[in-house]
Amino acid sequence: MPRLNFTRAMSKPETMEQRRADNIAEQLEELIFNGTFSDGDRLDEVRLAEQFGVSRTPLREAFQRLALSGLVELIPRRGAFVRQPGPVELMEMFEVMAELEAVCGRLAALRITDQALEELRDANSNCQAAVDARDSDAYYAENERFHRIIYQQSGNGFLAQEATKLHKRLKPFRRQQLRFRGRMAQSMAEHEHIVRALEMGTSDLAANTLREHVAVQGEKFHQLMATLKNAAE
Amino acid sequence: MPRLNFTRAMSKPETMEQRRADNIAEQLEELIFNGTFSDGDRLDEVRLAEQFGVSRTPLREAFQRLALSGLVELIPRRGAFVRQPGPVELMEMFEVMAELEAVCGRLAALRITDQALEELRDANSNCQAAVDARDSDAYYAENERFHRIIYQQSGNGFLAQEATKLHKRLKPFRRQQLRFRGRMAQSMAEHEHIVRALEMGTSDLAANTLREHVAVQGEKFHQLMATLKNAAE
DNA sequence: CTTGGCATTCTTGTATACAAAAACATTGAC
DNA sequence: GTCAATGTTTTTGTATACAAGAATGCCAAG
Fold this sequence. Notes:
The structure is a homodimer. Chain A is mainly α. The first copy, chain A, has 2 domains: 20-82, Arc Repressor Mutant, subunit A (Orthogonal Bundle), CATH 1.10.10.10; 87-232, GntR ligand-binding domain-like (Four Helix Bundle (Hemerythrin (Met), subunit A), Up-down Bundle), CATH 1.20.120. In chain A, 70% of the residues lie in helices and 4% in strands. Chain A has a 3-stranded antiparallel sheet with strand order 1-3-2. In chain A, α6 packs antiparallel against α7. The N and C termini of chain A lie far apart (60 Å). Chains A and B meet through α3, β2, α4 and α7 of A and α3, β2, α4 and α7 of B. Chain A binds a DNA duplex through residues 3-6, 19-21, 44-46, 54-58, 60-61, 76-79.
């Protein structure tokens, strides 16, 4: 006889208390992103367990989560292997990212609030300040804020969530890109165009501008490939 | 001193041998989809463990996977709760699905092979046969094949994967839809238009036709809401 | 009748134990 | 020297054990 009579989940308690396993998943993610582990590396359960000061159980739970997000491949009876996207998959992911952003932009052009527009302008001026100060960290932070606002203003929570997920996944690669000369300034200029399109409420223009902004083509393609080779060394 | 000197994963062995935990995740997914568990239900670890004849450990690993795919919400120290999308989230998901299909169509119009076109026509004639026989199961199977081909012909593996994932997630809701009068026939007709657009290689037409085909609007909206109410009773 | 606090029982989260499978190393044949 | 077979050791997958946190029930006070 089941005890818990509250078989229904009450309204989201929005508990931000994390279990240990969740933290471990995040930390592992970070270790993969920052290059401590690279493609093909095997994640040793016992060593990582020691390192994190926990037993294998929560680690294995973390592996499950990472596996579904694609960062790790779980090969039965063999272990967990880091799985970074190769050039082809990376291009594919950027292509999807560009399309997702375009959709967000198209919807946001119709639904964005005045307040959000103001925040976009604010993020943009912070970006400009970062460009002037050649502070790529600050630039990146504000750039992320800029895009996140657009995701949210699409008015489609699910879409915003998916876009955020992919954005996060591509973060390390995008970040490399910013180190190229003139990249920050160009990106800034594109942001201005995007804001203008959103202000005007022209869906198609907003969509196309965002797609172009995110798409990897022309010189950006070569830059991306260059960073990949560096990462592989 | 690490033992495994093969620290790199060899080329994908494409091992289809599943671990127990993977199977459990799939079975649970099925149980959620077919309505054995409905929104808000708590998944009892010990009971399910008995039911599946395993211990709690593999079950908990399965929970982790289901949590990331959104079917289950893991509340710390409280348990795993089934989380079915409500009307709003469902509409959002269909909107994203429509956009993903549109992108697939746009790319596929440029890249589709003659052989794939032939397969689309084949799937379509099977669909027609199913409509004539009023066999909604067969219709659904061929419909799925139809869409899957388009995903794959986008030439973007990552996109195809994401589209497939969402398609699967929406499966139970789409399936309900087919029971409405005339829905299968209308859907069939739209498929014809889609194939024609792909044949002609007109990207925009293919994209728009697919978007309209998948989008939930007008009468379809009411039908979807009706199925939701039925499911809640 | 409702409300609040305490004890009890159940449930989760984590650690540990153990069996099965995989990788490694050694030996021997060619 | 290369390669195959076999025994050893590591490593994974699962079961079990145990500690800490929730939920329930009970009792008393208002």
